[in-house]
C-alpha cells in the first residue's frame, strides 16, 4: 500500500495541480464564475486522472473492468461536488475571494478521492 500511496501522491499531485491551475486561470485570472472554473478543471482532471491512476497509481491493484471506469466517474463526480461545496461555502457565506477554495481543493478533496479510489474504484 505504501508504494501505491506514493504513486498516488505523485500522480494525484500532478492532476490536482493541473486542475487547480485551470481553476485559477478561469476563476482568479480571468474572473469568470468560480463554478465554471471548477467544471473546466474537473473535466481536465478527470480525463488525466483516469489515465494516470489506472495505468500507474493503482496498476497492480485489482482488475480493470467497465465497472472500474464507471466507479471512477462516480468518484470524480464526488470530487466535483466537494470542490463545488468549497467554492459555494468560501465565496458565499464566508465572503472570501475565489482563490480561497484552492486550499481544501489541494488537501481535503485529494484525501477523500485517494480513499475512494483505493478501496472502491481500483480495489
Q: How would you portray this structure in words?
A:
80% of the residues lie in helices and 0% in strands. It has 4 helices and no strands. It has helices at 2-29, 34-57, 66-91, 102-121. The protein has one domain (2-121). It is mainly alpha-helical and 123 residues long. The protein starts with a helix and ends with a helix.
Count of discrete alpha- or pi-helical segments spanning 4 or more residues: 4
* Poorly predicted ranges: none
The geometry reads as elongated
Domain module tally: 1
Rg for CA atoms: 14 Å
Average per-residue pLDDT, rounded, comes to 89
By helix and strand content, what is the structural category?
mainly alpha
Largest sheet: none
Helix content: over 70%
* N→C terminal distance: 11 Å
Number of strands: 0
Short description:
The protein is mainly alpha-helical and 123 residues long. It has helices at 2-29, 34-57, 66-91, 102-121.
Secondary structure layout plus pairing:
Blueprint: H1 2-29, H2 34-57, H3 66-91, H4 102-121
Helix pairs in contact: 1-2, 1-4, 2-3, 3-4
Descriptive keywords:
123 residues; mainly alpha; 80% helix
Amino acid at each position: 500500500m505504501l508504494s501505491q500511496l506514493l504513486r498516488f501522491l505523485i500522480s494525484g499531485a500532478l492532476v490536482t495541480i493541473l486542475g487547480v491551475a485551470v481553476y485559477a486561470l478561469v476563476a482568479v485570472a480571468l474572473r469568470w464564475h468560480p463554478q465554471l472554473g471548477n467544471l473546466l478543471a474537473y473535466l481536465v482532471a478527470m480525463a488525466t486522472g483516469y489515465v494516470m491512476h489506472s495505468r500507474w497509481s493503482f496498476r497492480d491493484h485489482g482488475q480493470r473492468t467497465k465497472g472500474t471506469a464507471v466507479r471512477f466517474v462516480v468518484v470524480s463526480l464526488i470530487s466535483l461536488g466537494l470542490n463545488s461545496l468549497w467554492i459555494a461555502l468560501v465565496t458565499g457565506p464566508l465572503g472570501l475571494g475565489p482563490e480561497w477554495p484552492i486550499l481544501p481543493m489541494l488537501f481535503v478533496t485529494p484525501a477523500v478521492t485517494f480513499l475512494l479510489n483505493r478501496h472502491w474504484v481500483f480495489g
